[in-house]
């Protein structure tokens, strides 16, 4: 009799487990290399959202769902990005949160489009991404068509009219620098020089010596913090008096660490799509994030969290985890996320995206009022 009861109990557990639907959500970002701090920040935003939903419990289409993170390292390399995209498709993910860099996101998006997998980037800001006509591609951050002009307006009104522009020749860095340069010229400023480097370089003395000869008021760098930090140091070493300005790739605690005493109050600024962390609707996100991962928010984790929660809410609304069935709900999303309300326009871009300017003060980036 006791054996029968035990057998029935085990059978019952097996039925419950069988009814639980495991839904894989992919994440792709650079988890190794110079940008790993940003990539891990991005992936942990996805991880935290998945953990939160699994704790609450989600039922979709009458089945209890358990979400599972499938994380991949694209090394911020376009070729690796496409390889990763194919692996995620082959793994049967129902959505991809990523990629982090525009240079990996744009080529990877073509693979997701062909496979019919939804992709939401938390941070790829090159406008080209959503100009390809892919109905399954979205982003939750304002693109560089907004960030470039915002940075240019700030530079021209607050810092000076003579501007030198440097970019790292990545899809993100060059794309942002191009938008910035166009806006500077349209606003009556002058470009004293346009130089370029790579996203692997750390010696900028030659190009900075050229920049110095034109005596610019501002040096704008389109690139990420692994290059921005050393560049700021070398600007100081050469005695260049220009103000240093970057986009979101430099709006990180890591840039401050890498630059050391090369940046001081009033000598450096950066722009970041979105509102300041402390002004986000979920002001406690950074505390929850730190408690879970023992790390400070670097830049993109609020947005990867929101991308994840937005796609899960779309699945719930549609009653299906299949991209073809929940896509319509995603397009109509109006989700109250950590960073704000997530709504998409007809291209898949974030509606009403804003850009914030930050100044360096008391050892950290502080938003300007």
Characterization of the model:
The protein is of the alpha/beta class. It folds into 2 domains: 2-142 and 281-342, Rossmann fold (3-Layer(aba) Sandwich), CATH 3.40.50; 145-273, Rossmann fold (3-Layer(aba) Sandwich). It has 12 helices and 15 strands. The strands form 3 sheets. The protein has a 7-stranded mixed β-sheet with strand order 8-7-9-10-11-14-15, with helices on both faces. Helix 4 links the parallel strand 4 and strand 5. Helix 3 (78-90) runs parallel beside helix 4 (102-115), helix 8 packs parallel to helix 9 and helix 11 crosses helix 12 (323-331). Residues 1-18 form the signal peptide.
Task: Provide tags for this entry.
single chain, 369 residues, alpha/beta, Rossmann fold, 2 domains, seven-stranded mixed β-sheet, six-stranded mixed β-sheet, 15 strands, elongated, disordered N terminus
Sequence-ordered SSE layout with sheet pairings:
Blueprint: H1 2-19, E1 21-29, H2 36-56, E2 58-60, E3 63-73, H3 78-90, E4 95-98, H4 102-115, E5 118-121, E6 137-139, H5 144-159, E7 162-167, H6 171-186, E8 190-196, H7 205-213, E9 218-222, H8 225-237, E10 243-246, H9 253-259, E11 268-273, H10 285-293, H11 301-318, H12 323-331, E12 335-336, E13 341-342, E14 355-361, E15 364-367
Parallel strand pairs: 1-3, 1-4, 4-5, 5-6, 7-8, 7-9, 9-10, 10-11
Antiparallel strand pairs: 2-3, 11-14, 12-13, 14-15
Helix pairs in contact: 2-11, 3-4, 5-6, 8-9, 11-12
């Amino acid at each position: 009799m006791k054996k029968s009861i035990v057998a029935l109990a085990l059978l019952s557990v097996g039925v419950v487990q069988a009814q639980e639907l495991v839904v894989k959500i992919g994440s792709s970002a650079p988890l190794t290399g110079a940008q790993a701090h940003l990539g891990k920040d991005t992936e942990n935003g996805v991880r935290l959202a998945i953990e939160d939903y699994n704790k609450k419990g989600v039922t979709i289409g009458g089945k209890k769902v358990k979400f599972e993170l499938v994380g991949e390292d694209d090394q911020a390399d376009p070729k690796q990005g496409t390889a990763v995209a194919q692996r995620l498709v082959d793994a049967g993910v129902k959505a991809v949160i990523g990629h982090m860099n525009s240079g990996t996101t744009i080529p990877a998006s073509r693979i997701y489009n062909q496979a019919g997998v939804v992709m939401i980037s938390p941070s790829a800001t090159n406008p080209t991404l959503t100009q390809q006509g892919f109905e399954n591609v979205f982003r939750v951050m304002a693109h560089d068509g907004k960030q470039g002009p915002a940075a240019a307006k700030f530079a021209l009104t607050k810092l000076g009219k003579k501007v030198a522009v440097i970019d790292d020749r990545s899809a993100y860095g060059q794309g942002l620098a191009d938008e910035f340069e166009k806006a500077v010229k349209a606003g009556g400023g002058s470009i004293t020089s346009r130089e370029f480097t790579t996203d692997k370089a750390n010696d900028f003395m030659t190009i900075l010596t050229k920049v110095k000869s034109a005596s610019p008021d501002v040096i704008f760098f389109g690139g990420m913090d692994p290059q921005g930090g050393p560049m700021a140091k070398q600007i100081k070493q050469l005695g260049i008096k220009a103000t240093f300005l970057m986009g979101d790739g430099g709006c990180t605690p890591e840039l401050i660490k890498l630059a050391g005493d090369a940046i001081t109050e009033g000598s450096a600024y950066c722009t970041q799509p979105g509102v300041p962390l402390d002004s986000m609707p979920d002001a406690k996100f950074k505390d929850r994030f730190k408690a879970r991962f023992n790390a400070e928010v670097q830049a993109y984790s609020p947005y990867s969290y929101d991308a994840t929660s937005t796609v899960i809410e779309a699945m719930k609304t549609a009653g299906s985890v299949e991209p073809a069935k929940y896509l319509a709900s995603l397009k109509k999303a109006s989700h109250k996320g950590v960073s704000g309300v997530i709504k998409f326009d007809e291209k898949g871009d974030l509606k009403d995206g804003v850009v914030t300017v930050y100044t360096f003060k008391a050892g950290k980036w502080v938003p300007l009022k």
